[in-house]
Amino acid sequence: MSKNICIILARGGSKGLPGKNIKPLAGKPLIAHTIGHAQESGLFSHIVVSSDDTDILSVAEQYGAIPLKRPDDLASDTIGSMPSVKHALLRVEEKTGTPFNTVTLLQPTSPLRLARDITGAMNVLKNGHADNVVSVTSDPPSPYYTVIEQQSSGGYAVCKPAHIVRRQDAPPVYQLNGAIYIWQRAFFTGTDIHHTYKNLTEKTDIYVMPPERSFDIDTQLDFDLCVFMLERRKNEETAVKAA
User: Taking the CB of residue 157, how many other CB atoms lie within 10 A of it?
Assistant: First the structure.
């Protein structure tokens, strides 16, 4: 097996939905869905959950992941994900004595992704020339027409003005869905990983996921929608097996 590491970041604090990372969803804790996706993909020699919360770490270990206590200085909601990813990567490499080939970050708040989405994103990385791959969803509202922002004059205008008359002439746009981030290991060498958006560069490629697998849980409404979507998926799979 290639030396690929999967890192799942899960803080204990959540303002939008307290305790969401271990909140029961379709019969198991939310984070267990993401651990299962990583396991089902068959891509990873190590699946690590980094957290400041002992309950999350206990659940992670129960479902087959390696628990890693995150330092307090990386547990604040004002810290971006990249320093925590690098911390987990270096700690596990130090323990194993072997560098990894790729680094994958999976958010525990994306329970509707499938294992084949992770495999698909990894294939984009390995078959191309990108430093990293991020998952996106297609057909979001175009900022060329629908996203407005306040101007210095006090009024409002389209935030991305362009001389485009027809919608079909606007460049295609994508929305980050937060489900999958994959990097070549070399990305973390000599990189200022404290830069909030450093995971998007001129050498970033994308893996496109459909909207129905691109939910990111932040609120109770998001959670309820995922409950509905998982139930619908289960019913569809049952119907296919019965056919």
Answer: 11
In a domain, 24, yes or no: yes
Cα gap 88→57, rounded to integer Å: 14
- The CB-side HSE value for 145 (13 A sphere, CA atoms) comes to 13
CATH number of the domain to which 122 belongs: 3.90.550.10
| pTM of the predicted protein model | 0.90
- Residue 169: count other Cβ atoms within 10 Å of its Cβ: 10
Asked if 183 contacts 101 with a C-beta cutoff of 8 angstroms, the reply is no
Q: How many structural domains is the chain composed of?
A: 1
Query: Tokens at residue 94, please?
Result: 């130090």
- Residue-wise DSSP of 222-240: HHHHHHHHHHHHHHHHHHH
Q: What confidence tens digit (pLDDT) does each residue in 129-164 have?
A: 899 999 999 877 788 878 888 888 889 888 777 777
